[in-house]
Amino acid sequence: MKILLTGANGYIGMRLLPQILELGHEVICAVRDENRLSIDDQTKARLQIIEMDFLKDFTPGLIPRDIDVAYYLIHSMSSSTTDFDEQEAQSAHTFNQYMAETQVKQVIYLSGIVNDEKLSKHLSSRKNVENILYQGDFNLTVLRAGIIVGSGSSSFEIIRDLCEKLPFMITPKWVLTKTQPIAIRDVVRFLIGVLGNKETYNDSFDIGGPDVLTYKEMLQQYAKARGFKNWIVTVPIMTPKLSSYWLYFVTSTSYKLAINLVDSMKMEVIAKDQRLQDLLGIKPHSYSEAIDMAFKKIEQNLVISSWKDSMISGRFKKNLEKYIQVPKYGVLKDVQRRKVKNADAVLENIWKIGGDNGWYYGNRLWKIRGFLDKLFGGVGLRRGRTHPDKIYPGDALDFWRVLLADKEGKRLLLFAEMKLPGEAWLEFKIDGNNVLHQTATFRPRGLKGRLYWYSIVPFHYFIFGGMIRNIAKT
User: Fold this and answer.
1) How far is residue 94's CA from residue 104's CA, in Å, rounded to a whole number?
2) Quick one: pLDDT band at residue 26, thresholds 50, 70, 90?
3) Which listed residue, 103, 104, 300, 411, has the most CB atoms within 10 A of its CB?
4) pTM above 0.85, yes or no
């Protein structure tokens, strides 16, 4: 079959893509920016990639007419705290326009479980998108999931941060809300299982794991699975806003995502039935099994995708290409050069920078800078990195965003997503003479920007000098 995969570079899309290819289907990936599709060149060669934005006006002829099935995996919850529902509705309407030009037989949409009549803004938006898609001239299959647990998922990373950073927690009362978590592996199995299955046409199905747990029980079971104990005290006085700040400062989540998550965590999310499980013969994994599978992926360095690599995890909202050309005029620079003996080994050091490996010098100072950034509303260092030794354009790298990762050309270019009175780039490049160039470029915003730069020049002397010295060691 010829399959259109929207949201291909998202958390779910990146997990689903290799499974569809393995089944021998022809895949067309619809993405906003091809440079951000974090897959190897061999896999890219097997795809057709279309750059398009469903928030922009309909453009005839972008999508091939002869597609058979389309996956709709577009969500905007983390991009805004106010109008994400309008954006999601607009995307769904535009998608229907594109589908009207094709011969598509089935559209598969991953939504959220809706139990209560009074829904959170997030779940209400998902339900509205579902209604819009039902207006399209195709057979719609809707899968409604609750909390998705897997390496790199926002839910899993939040639980991980809370448990491993706070052995004693004072929590809001929403931790007593019941939910039905499902392993990411099972979500993908269901998404594959309904592909071309006429028995699932024009119907909506709840999918969930076998366990119905409160968020408190999920935290406790995580701690037990990891071999330690945590103490959780629930208080009724923590407002949604305070809860959002609590999640934002303790975990790696963005503030916008924290607000929307807290809004949804007040609602019970429990599957109404297991019709689809019975129809497809799928037995979902338990919550403890999902945790175990997630850590096996982490320990084996096989994390395919992470929510942190999404643009919405930081403040970078524009196309990467706009920033790839580092400005030459009106900027301040710190330039370091060092002759290296083994360029390939040094390149491997560069490709391992950040995350658990740190920044090769002054890691405590980097952590302080990350804490200050988080304190003033930035992303901080908690995003880390998805892969320990692989980097793709668009990846999050602590409080940087990868603009260019050209291993063949021996060049890595990063753009700062920390709170700054200006714009900052950090570049590593090894030239043909085996000289490592490390360049920090800052384009200040007014007098405040220049004062900021000159105030930290003494730190640059030690940090950047020590960093290139240690990167050059082999």
Assistant:
1) 15
2) very high
3) 104
4) no
